[in-house]
Amino acid sequence: MLNTLLGTKDKMEAAFVGTTRVPLTWVKMTPCVVTQVKSQDQDGYWAIQLGFGERKSKNISKQLQGHLKGAIKDKKAPLFLREIRLSEAPDMKVGDIVKITDVFKKGDVIKVTGTSKGKGFAGVVKRWGFAGGPRTHGQSDRERAPGSIGQGTTPGRVYKGKKMAGRMGGQKVSVSNLTVVDINSQNNMMAVSGAVPGRSGGLLIIKKLASGSLEELEEEAPEVVVQEVEEEASAGEEDKQNAKEN
């Protein structure tokens, strides 16, 4: 059963679920088209390839035009292609359209995968959260320095994976346990609780993890006990008044 669709990040805002204010990310999910079907017999596993977005078919290679022959309509070809593995034989064929409501509904728990924003070359303070060196004894140029990166004779080298300055961002990131808050089937938009990786317009892979309800997003309002405090205060005043009369 298909449990994954493609989309692009649109914008962020906030909305109330009951009395709880929830941050939202709107994801644009134009209908996905099936561009390829793989079978257990020929390929060793079940999968379908989904196409998302639009571009002119004349701007792609002849080989890709042949691959997307059943999915090109009105001289428009999909912009993104991603393969989705399945646990059983799919009941879809090349050219079929998959909409949001075919996979998701309000309250579903999902995982969103995208490419994080590229931050360029960053130092260890920004990239890894290092504290930097002390300012004492005139070390004015060591505040954001990484410090020592290894031992001396043993091992005589720097271990692989050492946290150092380098290119930051632009990596594949997944965020799990988000909730589908709203679905606008007319505009092909879906609202997801929380933030998702990547820039606006970046490709997202949305996978359904489980069914749920919006009630899980609602937070219990804190109990404010005012009456008991007033009663205690009034009881203390009565004790003082009785003491004065005696």
Q: How would you explain this protein's 3D organization?
A:
By secondary structure, this protein is mainly beta. It has a single domain, classed as Beta Barrel (Elongation Factor Tu (Ef-tu), domain 3), CATH 2.40.30.10. The protein has four helices and 14 strands. Strand 1 and strand 2 form a beta hairpin. The N and C termini lie far apart (83 Å).
**Second-tier CATH architecture:** Beta Barrel
CATH superfamily name? Answer: Translation factors
User: What is the 3D shape?
Assistant: flat
- Low-pLDDT runs of 5+ residues are none
DSSP strand tally: 14
Total separate domains:
1
Compose a concise summary of this entry.
The chain is mainly beta and 246 residues long. The protein is 14% helix and 36% strand.
